[in-house]
Amino acid sequence: MPAFDATPPTLDGFDQLVADPSEYSIEPPAEEQIKRDACLEHPLIEAEIELLIDCLIGDAAPDEAIDVSTNFRSSEFDIATSALTVNGWCVVSTFLSQTQTQALSTECMAMHDAQLLKPARVGANRAATLLRGDSTRWFQPDALSIQQQAFTDRIEALRNALNRDLFLGLVDTESHYAVYRPGAGYARHLDCLRNNDSRVISAVFYLNEAWQDADGGALRLYLADQSYHDVFPRAGTLLLFLSAQFEHEVLPATRDRMSIACWMRQRA
Ligand code: OGA
Ligand code: MN
Q: 5 alpha carbon to ligand 1 midpoint, in Å?
């Protein structure tokens, strides 16, 4: 009998992340296909959870006042709310203009180069970069840049549309920039904080110009029937899904991969 158990903890999520990179290249879905898929019916049964639960994603975001001033509505949002109701997820292919998206991309990379983004953490393990390899920086609600304000206005308009159409009672949104360097990923997880189910909708907005499927870096969304759907991080694409229902992972890419991850929250 050894005096202590020297077996290192296994990193299942990481093993899964790096075991077989060839698994990560699947048939690239065409933009139209993504839209069609988002409108197909998938029953929302609870998936079996045998995976990493994301206990703490970075630091807590600063509190944000409830904003009911934005009342903008578009038919794209109508489609998004319908798809969310039926499927629990959807992709909006042009959430912001190209100019606005480029401004966010430029700012994100400049902040990254200035080392303003910090390595993200998973749970209490501050060195778990094998499970989660991105660096992040929260938007500060009272100190938004012009481009962050434009993005936030649009997200708030979407949040208001979701409240109006789906009665979700979403009181605010927290957002952060994320940069994944080449080879970095995020193991399969659920976006919920330990002892806190305030996150209802996860939204990820992508900032990467001229992204090719061969660059990798898809967000792999696991569906209720155990199949999955890969969303490539192309500039202008917004992915929405129910935070508590969909496990997902970020596959490694061959180039820098930038996004804005957001969570629309209910009162905890
Ligand atoms: C997250 C996450 C996905 C992405 O930050 O929780 O899953 O595509 N991000 O950046
Ligand atoms: Mn996530």
A: 34
